[in-house]
Amino acid sequence: MTAAISSTAVSPTAISPKALAISGMSKSFAGVRAIRDLSFTVPKGVTTALIGPNGAGKTTVFNLVSGVYGVDAGRIEVNGVDVTRMPSRRRITTGVARSFQNIRLMAHLSVLENLLVGQHVRASSLGALFTPYRLVPGHRWKREAREALEESGLGRYADETVAALPYGVRKRIDLVRATLAGANLLMLDEPAAGLNPSETNALRDHLKALMAKGITLLVVEHDMHFVESICENVVVLNFGEKIAEGPLSRVRQDPKVREAYIGTDEEA
Ligand SMILES: Nc1ncnc2c1ncn2[C@@H]1O[C@H](COP(=O)(O)OP(=O)(O)OP(=O)(O)O)[C@@H](O)[C@H]1O
């Protein structure tokens, strides 16, 4: 049976100055050490990038924070709440949400329907979870979803089928979905991948608007121009370990970082 998600189970604390605090985190897959004794924090309001060559462990960090996998060792706090052993589906109640490299919107549904499906994570009872939204005229979630779309400049797409929309618009709708779920810490996995320059600009503006609303972003991104334009702090991983941390301008001069990227097509 699908468990109901109580919106009051854990209230994200406004007290912690850290949106995310990871300490001593390790994870192996069949003997391969993907993450090794990793510690870093994301202060509230400080847009942070997690960078590193292919296979460095960036997506694994997202999977561990969102609870797709359990850690072998270490501790993860979101907004001051220990989520280390918390089931994945409950972690949204602490304020963390993520977007994926491959957009997980349902292509055959409308934009609004996709957002309403996403909002079901906020359902506080089984009844609310299974109430078909069409049966509830003027439903609050529907209104909130339309408002969020308008606010993001995407209002005209509300009733369009997702499959018919350009990729850049779908990516931004995925962002609206994550914020509607009540997140104040958004983990974005390669948000700019596959976007053309004008779509990238629209995404950047969208992210800056979220930052201005107080949402903290943790971004995995290979496009360093994009990272430079929105991120104040950068954490660099290599073979699952943190090898550098700080502003991109400083980090990219670090010999360890330069060495990590040698032989790859990427640049830090
Ligand atoms: N489910 C899994 N099973 C086995 N190995 C895994 C699994 N997930 C990740 N790994 C391994 O963990 C290491 C880190 O992978 P991860 O995908 O986190 O790297 P990444 O930095 O996100 O790479 P990329 O930039 O290519 O997406 C790799 O060696 C990868 O093969």
Structural write-up:
This protein has a domain at 18-95 and 183-261: P-loop containing nucleotide triphosphate hydrolases (Rossmann fold, 3-Layer(aba) Sandwich). With 268 residues, it is α/β, with parallel strands linked by helices. Strand 9 (233-238) and strand 10 form a beta hairpin. The strands form two sheets. Strands 6-7-8-3-9-10 form a six-stranded mixed beta sheet, with helices on both faces. The chain has a four-stranded antiparallel beta sheet with strand order 2-1-4-5, with helices on one face. It is built from nine helices and ten strands. Adenosine-5'-triphosphate is lined by residues 29, 32, 34, 52, 54-60.
What are the salient characteristics of this protein?
single chain, alpha/beta, Rossmann fold, six-stranded mixed β-sheet, four-stranded antiparallel β-sheet, globular, disordered N terminus, binds adenosine-5'-triphosphate
Summarize the structure.
This protein is an alpha/beta fold and 268 residues long. The chain has helices at residues 58-66, 111-119, 126-130, 140-151, 167-180, 197-212, 224-230, 248-251, 255-261; strands at residues 18-29, 32-43, 48-51, 73-78, 81-82, 96-99, 185-189, 216-220, 233-238, 241-246.
